[in-house]
Design goal:
Layout: E1 11-15, E2 20-24, E3 73-76, H1 98-102, E4 110-116, H2 130-147, H3 153-161, E5 181-188, E6 200-206, H4 211-226, H5 232-243, E7 247-250, E8 254-257, E9 268-272, H6 284-305, E10 311-316, H7 324-329, E11 333-337, H8 353-356, E12 360-361, H9 365-373
Parallel strand pairs: 2-12
Antiparallel strand pairs: 1-2, 3-4, 4-6, 5-6, 5-10, 7-8, 8-9, 9-11, 10-11
Helix pairs in contact: 2-6
């Protein structure tokens, strides 16, 4: 265990994955709370909602009609944040001018998708069995495969280990350009900005490498170089498996932990225990293990405060296109960033010191992991039926 005194004193913890620090203030959990509280989550959604633009057979906002799908469904986002075609832009200022130095901009093109997890409107990943999550993982893998650069060492592997790219729409699997990165993510709950409760996630594929995965990749490359080819997150997973104090769940392929450096109160990271660069590195059994890990973490979240636990979840893996050093240093992992702190209605706010100085958390990751370990088992709302 960490020194017991760390449960009581303010201290900083280092995040080797970001090269940053976080302030931990465990004594602050004793302060009274008279601030904003979230509304309790509705749990009585119908299996089918005729007004939902994601339910099977319904019309979407732009007029297209969803097929009567039985598992997952993929379509190009009707309101994409980035698009494949747009007006050309190039800065024209003299390279020696202050404007060229301080007012930089570059165009970004890409493709955005929506992936429904289930045809049933009233389910979440926490409600699904691992076998029902496997098709979601296969869909992610197919889309990642379809966008891989043919020059990537992963492209040859992808052809041998994954299903051929498929979709309900022809334009899903045929990008018009080679993109640099694919960010797969889910926002669950109104507290995380989700505008539709139907179980779904998004995929944004862009020409640039976004800030968060870029910062992580820089640290992963640095660690691999300095440690003679050893991978940072493989070492970290081994260390956490030995110590067990921050482990929430584990199986043969994956480890779910509240990271030593976690910012959010009940933040969890699912890490591949062996060096896996991307989704295409997993075989059928390993995809089943990933589905089990996702199912377990999301179910524990809902059981913790007996509510539909909000979070933002995102996959980090190898870029679609990049140098061999970038591909080989990449290590597949999933971040869960949930905002709730004390109960189903009291959330953590990243404001003030967190915005102006550095992130801060109230409970320690060890305390959070212990609470999540204690709320496994059957999903709480199944017991109420």
């Amino acid at each position: 265990m960490p020194d017991a005194i760390l449960d009581d004193i303010s201290h900083r913890r280092y995040n080797p994955l970001r090269g940053s620090w976080i302030l931990v203030s465990p004594h602050r959990t004793k302060r009274p709370w008279q601030g904003q509280q979230e509304a309790a989550t509705q749990t009585t959604l119908p299996k089918y909602d005729e007004s939902c633009y994601l339910c099977p057979g319904n019309k979407r906002a732009q007029g297209d009609t969803n097929p009567n799908y039985k598992s997952t469904f993929v379509f190009v986002n009707d309101y994409s944040a980035v698009k494949e075609d747009q007006a050309e832009y190039k800065q024209t200022e003299d390279n020696t001018s202050l404007s060229s130095l301080l007012l930089k901009a570059e165009p970004v093109t890409g493709k955005c998708y929506v992936v429904t997890f289930s045809p049933k409107h009233n389910l979440t990943l926490a409600d699904l069995q691992p076998s029902e999550i496997v098709p979601v993982i296969e869909t992610w893998t197919q889309l990642y495969t379809a966008h891989l650069s043919p020059k990537s060492p992963l492209a040859q592997l992808a052809g041998a280990t994954t299903l051929a790219p498929s979709s309900h729409q022809d334009n899903v699997s045929r990008p018009s350009a080679q993109y640099r990165y694919m960010q797969i993510f889910e926002n669950k709950g109104a507290a995380m900005g989700c505008s539709n409760p139907h179980p779904h996630g998004q995929i944004w594929t862009t020409t640039g490498l976004p800030e968060e995965p870029a910062a992580e990749l820089e640290q992963l490359i640095k660690y691999r170089r300095e440690q003679g080819g050893v991978n940072l997150l493989e070492d970290y997973a081994k260390l956490e498996a030995e110590k067990e104090e921050r482990v929430v769940f584990k199986n043969k392929t994956f480890l779910a932990v509240c990271p030593w450096w976690a910012v959010w109160p009940f933040e969890v990271m699912i890490i591949a225990r062996q060096h896996k660069r991307a989704l295409v590195d997993f075989d059928d059994e390993e995809r089943k293990d990933l589905a089990e890990a996702i199912s377990d973490v999301t179910r524990r979240y809902d059981n913790l405060f007996e509510t539909h636990f909000p979070y933002s979840m995102g996959l980090h893996q190898a870029p679609l296109e990049g140098a061999n050093a970038e591909i080989e240093a990449s290590h597949f992992h999933i971040h869960f960033y949930p905002p709730l702190l004390r109960s189903a209605t009291v959330r953590k706010f990243l404001v003030g010191y967190e915005l102006m100085a550095e992130p801060q958390r109230d409970i320690t990751p060890e305390q959070a992991a212990a609470r999540l370990r204690n709320c496994g088992g059957e999903l709480y709302r199944n017991k109420l039926q």
